[in-house]
Structures are given as C-alpha cells and as structure tokens.
Write a structure and sequence with these properties.
This protein has 423 residues and is an alpha/beta fold. The chain has one domain: Amidase signature (AS) domain (Amidase signature (AS) enzymes). 37% of the residues lie in helices and 15% in strands. It contains 14 helices and 12 strands. A 10-stranded mixed sheet has the order 2-1-3-5-4-11-12-8-6-7, sandwiched between helices. Strands 9-10 form a two-stranded antiparallel sheet. α2 links the parallel β1 and β2. The two termini are 31 Å apart.
Length: 423
C-alpha cells in the first residue's frame, strides 16, 4: 500500500498543478479503519481470523473518497471485529493513548483516534455500532461523527451488526469532518440500508450562525451520573453555546435501561449469526473477551430478536417526540474520561459498573434511533484527559449538527490541543 499511496499522492500533485483540482480532499492522506474493504490489500478487522482476507473490491465509501481525490495512506487498528468500546487488540497491538499510555484509547476505532491526535494522519474513517466513532473521539480528543443511518454506505465494510452499524469520518477539526463526510455520503444501491436523500453542502451550512437554535438537555437520563470533571466541562460548553445564541431547555427521553436491553437484543443475535462458522472452526483465534461476547448472542430466540426490533421502533418514536420542540440534543459523549487499561470496573458517584458498559451508555441510544451524533473536544479533566461533548440532531440533519459543533469549536481552544509526544 505504501507504493500505491506515494504514486497516488504524486498523481494528485500533478493534477492539482495542472488545474485539475477535485476539491478540498484532493491529495489529502486518509487512514482507513481496517474493516473497510481495500482491493488487493488485506482487510483483517483486527483479527488473525481474517489475516489472509484480501478483498476483490473497495468499499463504496473508499471509492467515494478516492474519487474525491483522497489518498489512502494505510489501514488502522481496532478492537477485534469492532466488538469492544475499550480499544484493546492483543494480536496486532493496542494503540497507545498518548494522553497516558496506561489508559485505554477507546474503541472500537482506536487506531483512528490515536493516529489523528498524534498527527500521523489528518483524517480517518471509523464505524459506529454503539459508539465506536464517538468513544475514541472523546477519549483521544478529536472529532468524530456518526451520520444518520443510511447516509453513508456500509457496502464493503465488515459488519458487526447490520441493523446498528454506521460508517463515518474522524478528524481533528469539524471543518475537516464536514469535508470527509461530504465525500463519503450519498445513496448506494449496493447497501440495503442506504437512503436516497439529497446530500446538502455541509461546508456551506456549517459556517452559518447558530443563534436561535433550540437545544434539549436530557438531564434525567444523561446527566445523573458523571465524573465531576466531565460534568464541569460539559456545563461550561453549554454556557458557551448559550452565549452564541442558542436556547436551552430540559427534555425527557426514553430510558437508558431500555436502550441497553433493546441494543443487546438486536446486536447479540446479529453478531452471532455473522461469526457462527468461525466460532465453530477457529474459536482459539478469537480474542477471548470478544469470543465470550459473541457466544452470548447465540441462543437468543428469534421471537426475542423480533420483539427487540419492535421495541426499537417505539424507542425511536419516543426520541422523535422528545425532539419535537428542539433542534438538537446535547449530552456528554462519555460519563468518564479514559480509565486505566486494567480498570475493568469503574465507580462513579458510589456506583460500580463494568467499564465496557459505561463507555457505550451515552452513545448507543443513537445507534438505535439512527440519529446523527458528533463528539467534539470540550476541555480536559483534572488529570489532563480529554472530555467530549456529544451533539445529536434529527434524522438527516447532519448539517445542523456540524454547524453547532463548528460554532462551538471556533469559540473555544480545545480542538487545537495536542498531547506531549516527547516524553
């Protein structure tokens, strides 16, 4: 891939010099989460099970990126098969969190988050089934958007859960995120979940003011149990947005417990169905943590799976109703900043809970609803660890989400902060 990347970069340079400029992505190096098919190049999903898998085509999103002039620089590591919010990988190595190498990088798009914040690449792709774009964005201090379900094609992206998977960009700024999303978005008949809805000019919409927008705060479900450093920075971010002209009100949304139950009822059986053959033939090649989670979905009755989808529809309607009087929801991306790798359990406000569960809690509701959601940096806690702000929009309103994120970003310094890589 190195030779082809250099060749494509030189080709882009010649084209731009001769006036054949394709747009703001032309000649820009892009890293791909190693779930995205790359023709003639191994696509491993972070597991030795697929070490020898070489796709015969590019993922649709990859084709759209290269058609826009982007140069694919390489593949990025991840939690095996994207099934984990921590970001560990015992087979290919866990990407080190540069804000503290003893801490998790966030998953599953861990390689994307780390490569961005360390300056290895300016832009990357991710996937998000329960937060896997937004979690590492928050933990690493970068920007990541999960677009509306159906906005970006999943064709040629190794699935975790067909019903909950989303694909999208991760970058170091909101503007770069808008540029990459512009290239990736659009209808694809090869993806059964793709929606044929016109893609607006995200860059143009992003730069509009946000005065007059109405923001809902789901305080009961999203703000009840947070680390103090997270609460402080998110509350400060909301004040900045109010100063920029948005109005804020509390809203009631469906419960987190309901989101967890529905998500597991859909995710478990879909993951197990995809992995059944390999589990029978190569169980020892799985990361044990991932294998255990996959097996837990193998015995969910079909009737329960169907009921989960029915509950999902009701859950989504509950969120649509909650947002009838507002343009956006704003929440923390995470209840906590990056825990240490060995901290499999974390205590917040006297309540002990598995780290994996905590990491996905504030994200997965929007995989169920399919609503667009972005994570942007909004400060640092007392340990110098990044805090993320999550902005959620109505279906196919990525432009409003990006506009709010961009206006906040321009009023604050957080997106420009980098870890010390010299020590």
């Amino acid at each position: 891939m190195e030779k082809s990347s250099l060749s494509e970069a030189k080709k882009a340079e010649r084209a731009i010099s001769s006036g054949e400029y394709k747009g703001p992505l032309h000649g820009i190096p892009i890293g791909l989460k190693d779930l995205y098919y790359t023709k003639g190049v191994p696509t491993t999903a972070g597991s030795p099970i697929l070490a020898d898998f070489i796709p015969e085509e590019d993922a649709t999103a990859v084709t759209k990126i290269t058609d826009a002039g982007g140069v694919i620089l390489g593949k990025l590591n991840l939690h095996p098969f994207a099934y984990g919010a921590i970001g560990l990988n015992p087979d290919y190595g866990t990407p080190p969190n540069p804000w503290g190498t003893e801490r998790i990088p966030g998953g599953s798009s861990s390689g994307s988050g780390v490569a961005l914040i360390t300056g290895m690449i300016p832009a990357a792709t991710g996937s998000d089934t329960g937060g896997s774009i937004r979690i590492p964005a928050s933990i690493c201090g970068v920007v990541g958007i999960k677009p509306t379900y159906g906005r970006v094609s999943k064709h040629g992206v190794i699935p975790l859960s067909w019903s909950l998977d989303h694909t999208g960009p991760m970058t170091r700024s909101v503007e770069d995120c808008a540029i990459l999303l512009q290239a990736m978005a659009g209808y694809d008949p090869k993806d059964p979940g793709s929606r044929d809805i016109p893609v607006p000019n995200y860059l143009a919409e992003m730069k509009q003011p946000i005065k007059g927008l109405k923001v809902g705060l789901p305080v009961k479900e999203f703000y009840s149990r947070l680390q103090s450093g997270v609460r402080e920075k998110v509350e400060q971010a909301i004040k900045v947005l109010e100063q920029l002209g948005v109005s804020v009100e509390e809203v009631d949304v469906p419960s987190m417990d309901e989101a967890a139950a529905i998500s597991l009822g859909i995710l478990g059986p879909e993951v197990a169905a995809y992995h059944r053959k390999w589990i029978e033939e190569r169980p020892k090649d799985y990361f044990p943590q991932v294998l255990t989670r996959i097996k837990s979905g193998m015995f969910v009755p079909a009737v329960d799976y169907i009921k989960a989808h029915q509950a999902r529809a009701r859950f989504t309607q509950g969120y649509l109703k909650a947002m009838e009087g507002v343009d956006l929801l704003i929440t923390p991306t995470e209840q906590l900043t990056a825990p240490k790798i060995e901290e499999t359990v974390v205590t917040i406000d006297g309540v002990e809970e598995a780290t994996q569960n905590l990491m996905v809690a504030l994200n997965r509701p929007f995989n169920l609803t399919g609503f667009p959601a972005i994570s942007i940096p909004c400060g640092f806690d007392e340990n110098g660890l990044p805090v993320g702000l999550q902005i959620i929009g109505k279906p196919f309103q990525e432009g409003v989400v990006l506009r709010t994120a961009f206006n906040y970003e321009q009023a604050t310094p957080w997106h420009s902060k980098r870890p010390n890589l010299k020590d």
